[in-house]
Amino acid sequence: QVQLVESGGGLVQPGGSLRLSCVASGIIFNAYTMHWYRQAPGKQREWVATISAGTRTTNYADFVKGRFTISRDNAKKTVSLQMNNLMPDDTAAYYCMTNTGDWGQGTQVTVTS
Asked: Is there a contact between 68 and 84 (Cβ–Cβ < 8 Å)?
């Protein structure tokens, strides 16, 4: 079955950086568009970024443009999210998702001074 495992979260000060990774198994990874979402406490889950399967076209939510970069390594079946200039409002659990609706368990990012 499909399994997505996120890692790379942690505690970071404002202005800092983190790199999240999501390793997939059970799918032909290079055929899947992949997404990152996040959910802050008490808020709805929101879309963060997408990278397409073939052309690797990327799209970002306005609130992360210029700060976050999504990428993929098909050989490693991994989608990554490089997060720079983190702000307290970026505090959330971050999840990867396939375009067929499979979710990982999430990784927590906390931005605080």
From this structure: yes
Per residue in 34-70, pLDDT tens? 999 999 999 999 999 999 998 899 999 999 999 999 9
> How many Å apart are CA 63 and CA 83, to the nearest integer?
12
Chain segment 66-96, per-residue pLDDT in tens: 999 999 999 999 999 999 999 999 999 999 9
DSSP states along 42-104: TS--EEEEEE-SSS--EEE-GGGTTTEEEEEEGGGTEEEEEE-S--GGG-EEEEEEETTS-B-
Phi first, then psi, for residue 105 (nearest 5°) are -90, -10
Q: How far apart are CA 99 and CA 78, in angstroms?
A: 15
Structure-block tokens of residue 21? 């990774």
What is the phi/psi pair of residue 88, to 5°?
Answer: -55, -35
